[in-house]
Amino acid sequence: MNRELDIIAELRKAEVNFKFSDNSPERVGKVYNVCSAKDQDRIVDLASKLEALKILDVNHSKCITEKSAKSIGQMRQLESLRISFSSLTGTALRHLKWLRRLRLLEAQDVSSLSLGAPYLADIKSLRVLDISGTDFNDAAIEHLQKNVQLEELIANCTKVTGSGFSFFPSECALSDISIRGCPLTRFGLDSIVSLSRLRHLSFSSSEDSSNVDLLGVQWPELETLDFSEISISNEILKELSQIETLTWLRIDDTNLANVDLSVLNRLRNLRDLGLSSTGVSADAINGLVELSNLETLTLADNEIKTHELAPLRTALPNCDIWCG
């Protein structure tokens, strides 16, 4: 205990470089404003000797060296690690396989992260992984099928088309996938929705991809669905309305002016609906009177005045309507 107190005392002297909480039973460490890799190596090495450290944040590090990565790998109680917006070599990630308790890894905008995909696959305890803004592609995604406990994957603004998910067993643990701003293909989308435990899905078109056709997609029992900039027809909306398990739906930034919204009345479990920037009319919105469980309706950036929705407010008095 005295040894640990000595370490804490030394870290306090470097308060501009390290913050932590003394709240038992865990400590939260954050390394920031580090002037040099040498300073960071020293601080991370000291932090690795705090046996109770469960959360470490080294976001925005100029360079996470091999030495620092090795020290992090010695933090055997670590459950959450944030290395976003940092520079490190892909091989440095090999030290993280020793983190047997690691549940969450945030690695947004980490350069050359795809090179470390085989090492990420060695972190068997991982539940949540955020690789947004990295160079991850489908070949790198394929490695993640080995993360058998992975439940949530956030891969926004990457090179992922979705085809890498075709190698995942349909009964894998993945229940939440976000791939907004990715060059998604129809084959990729079909591969994703074939995952039987998928409950939460978020995606959109990107400048690099053609518009993904949603007609005929075999949707699983989703609870939340969020997509934008995807062309929607009456036939597609009719198919979407068959996902009776939906409680949360976002259809933003696409033209719904000529689409029959009344089919959405089939979604009796829906609690939150977003139709921002869709060109919908007040008359179409007033037709959603059968959504008796709806609690929130977001209509930002549409030419609808609040008073025009009086019929819907009367029919759904417990629903908050936001016109923006």
TrEMBL record:
It comes from the Bacteria. InterPro entries: LRR_dom_sf, Zyg-11_UBL_adapter. Gene3D superfamilies: Ribonuclease Inhibitor (3.80.10.10). This is Leucine Rich repeats (2 copies).
